[in-house]
Design a protein that fits this description.
Length: about 500
């Protein structure tokens, strides 16, 4: 079972059934989210021939499961960046996000995409959160953001104040995606859905091998958040982060802005217009992908918290999303390998893709077209600023090594056939000598696949909220039948 976001429910996309792929373009973009579609549109406007290849349908990944806040105030992100980088880099990051948000606002206004202007808040539940919010306010001011301090934000629970940034906005992400796709097609972009790219190789032209054929391009842009290509080892430079959201029907807007806590418990709040009133969106309870005992319990945690402070709210939707947090706290947009411009990548948006993703698209399209944006230095894929994340990188990869070892040892405690899993449950065990087997029961059918992740050999774990197999190493996710749901894996789990 896949949880369905309120946006996916409003804008259903039928599964695509493409014919065999062939052809050649100036640029092929891999990934049909906000970054890929914006990049394709910018390049097509400049006269390039462009194709977008999307494994499922446009917006099916992180974009369509986001809370879609468009803001340069992003919780305590500026504080995290400033701990690792000089003030100049923080200013570049802020300018990139302001410019990305401004481009998106113009696009929405020009093409009839509804956007609701709201103030963004970073608030503290307690004294530590308030201190973190005040620090964020100071850094934001130094970086040029016109923030103010609010002693008592209009929330139904106790806080210790908040930093506020006016004139930000929120959208329906799939309404935006559909408008981007329509404009891209109007400018000659070929969008091919239901095509999963397996390999990318060669130079001049670059060859893309998919599950339904091959295509060639002068330049390939991989806009899959974490690259599906292992060259460059980006999988070792980011941590996969899963977070949860709930939508509730309310008779009137329950909050007057876009809120994010600076301390625990992590909580995100925004409203959304609805035909029969208003919706309240509550998010949080995140964790590293594959490294929690029960994702379903995370959703229950959000439900209990909402019932306490918004007792009249009625739940309508529950879903989760995946993003990637870079070790050095900055997103990336640039060459997959140093000195090679034929394959470019973008990602690592740390849950702020509606500004960072557009900024990455502006940086990449400018790079391809021969331009340069000064703030794009903060998005460089290779440079000295990478070294400032070396301590976090060492920690992240030590945790990956621990999860790899634990994953292979754990099935030793479950040898043999054992008890068949109950409906909706899954388990990893050793049915015979060799690799462990992932066994799950969904829709009354017991399914057996290899428990070994097809990316780098981690042992997957059962996700009881999404009915999926999640890898705790680098965030690859698979359906109960082994089909790929999220990368960096490009191949499914093998048959057991």
């Amino acid at each position: 079972m896949t949880l369905v976001s309120v946006w996916e429910d409003r804008h259903p996309h039928p599964p695509a059934a493409p014919a065999e792929l062939s052809g050649s373009w100036d640029v092929v973009v891999v990934g049909g989210g906000i970054t890929g579609l914006t990049t394709a549109l910018l390049l097509a406007r400049a006269g390039r021939s462009v194709a977008v290849l999307e494994a499922r349908h446009v917006g099916a990944g992180t974009t369509g499961r986001s809370t879609a806040k468009v803001s340069a105030l992003q919780g305590t992100r500026l504080s995290r960046i400033s701990r690792r980088h000089p003030e100049r880099v923080v200013e570049q990051y802020v300018r990139a996000n302001v410019e990305g948000g401004a481009w998106l606002a113009r696009f929405c206004d020009d093409h009839g995409v509804d956007r609701q202007v709201r103030a963004a808040y970073t608030f503290g539940f307690g004294s530590r959160g308030a201190a973190a919010a005040r620090k964020e306010s100071l850094i934001a001011t130094r970086a040029g953001l016109p923030v103010t301090w609010v002693d008592r934000p209009d929330l139904p629970f106790e806080t210790q104040g908040a930093v506020r940034l006016d004139d930000q906005f929120q959208v329906d992400p799939l309404e935006l995606v559909d408008a981007l796709a329509a404009q891209a097609r109007a400018h000659g972009v070929t969008i091919i859905e239901g095509v999963r790219v397996r390999r990318v190789n060669g130079t001049g032209p670059v060859r893309l091998v998919t599950d339904v054929g091959a295509a060639t391009a002068g330049t390939v842009v991989v806009a899959t958040n974490t690259p599906i290509l292992d060259r460059g080892a980006f999988f070792a430079r980011v941590s996969p982060a899963r977070s949860y959201s709930l939508a509730f029907r309310t008779s009137h807007p329950a909050v007057d802005g876009m809120y994010l806590s600076a301390d625990s418990p992590s909580r995100s709040l925004r409203d959304a217009p609805a035909d029969d009133g208003s919706l309240l969106l509550i998010g949080g309870a995140g964790h590293t992908t594959g490294r929690t005992r029960s994702p379903a319990a995370r959703l229950d945690e959000l439900r209990a918290w909402t019932a306490e402070y918004f007792p009249d709210a009625v739940e309508t939707h529950a879903w989760s999303a995946q993003d990637y947090v870079p070790h050095h706290a900055l997103p990336y947009a640039g060459p997959l390998l140093p000195g090679h411009e034929e394959i470019l990548v973008a990602g690592g948006f740390s849950k702020w893709g509606f500004t960072n993703g557009v900024a990455a698209a502006l940086a990449l399209s400018g790079r391809i077209l021969g331009g340069q944006m000064e703030w794009a230095e903060a998005f460089r894929t290779w440079g000295a600023h990478e070294l400032r994340g070396s301590v976090d990188s060492a920690r992240m990869n030590a945790e990956v090594g621990f999860e790899m070892t634990r994953g292979w040892l754990r099935p030793l405690a479950r040898p043999g056939l054992g008890v068949a899993p109950a409906e909706g449950d899954g388990t990893v065990r050793l049915d015979h000598l060799g690799a462990p087997t992932a066994v799950a029961r969904t829709a009354g059918v017991e399914r057996r696949v290899s428990a070994v992740c097809s990316h780098l050999g981690g042992i997957v774990r059962w996700n009881d909220a999404e009915r999926s197999w999640d890898c705790p190493l680098h965030g690859s996710r698979f359906g109960a039948d082994g089909e790929v749901l999220d990368g960096p894996a490009t191949c499914g789990l093998g048959r057991a």
